[in-house]
Amino acid sequence: MTRFAAELATWIAGPWAAAELAGGPWAILPAALVLVAAPAVFSTVGDKKTILVPTPGPVRLAIELVLAAIGVVSAWLVGLSGPRCRSAPSSPVMLVTNARRFRWLAQGAPLE
């Protein structure tokens, strides 16, 4: 559940920050597509039921860590802080609650 909360925060704050940095709303859709597609397309066997592109565990772990960082940095860039923003606390909590899964990914979860 914490992983979904962190991803959701990234999906909201990331496109919002992209629009602010780009100076217009035209950047929202491409940013949202990249942030949603990356974890949906690149999956590790044994982690999800549907695998579109089999990905080694360390690569999947890198994708998730980058997405978590984007969520925290994006929330900070758009000025979300304190009780109005849950992405900053949800990402570190995700790292703790998913530590066993992250170790499994880091140790080279299988491609097949």
Which helices and strands, and how do they pair?
Elements: H1 2-22, H2 28-41, E1 42-43, E2 53-54, H3 57-77, H4 87-97, H5 99-106
Explain the overall architecture.
With 112 residues, the protein is mostly helical. 67% of the residues lie in helices and 4% in strands. Strands 1-2 form a two-stranded parallel sheet. Helix 1 packs antiparallel against helix 4 (87-97), helix 3 runs antiparallel to helix 4 and helix 3 crosses helix 5 (99-106). The two termini are 26 Å apart. The mean pLDDT is 83.
Q: What descriptors fit this protein?
A:
112 residues; mainly alpha
Give a brief description.
This protein has 112 residues and is mainly alpha-helical.
Strand content range: under 5%
Number of strands: 2
Structural category is: mainly alpha
**Arithmetic mean pLDDT:** 83
Assign a percent range to the helix content: 55-70%
- Unreliable spans are none
What count of domains describes the coordinates? Answer: 1
| Biggest β-sheet: strands ordered side by side in the sheet | 1-2
Taking the alpha carbons of the first and last residues, their distance comes to 26 Å
- Please give the radius of gyration in angstroms: 14 Å
The number of helical runs is 5
Element-by-element helix/strand order: HHEEHHH
**Overall geometric form:** globular
How is the biggest beta sheet arranged? Answer: 2 strands, parallel
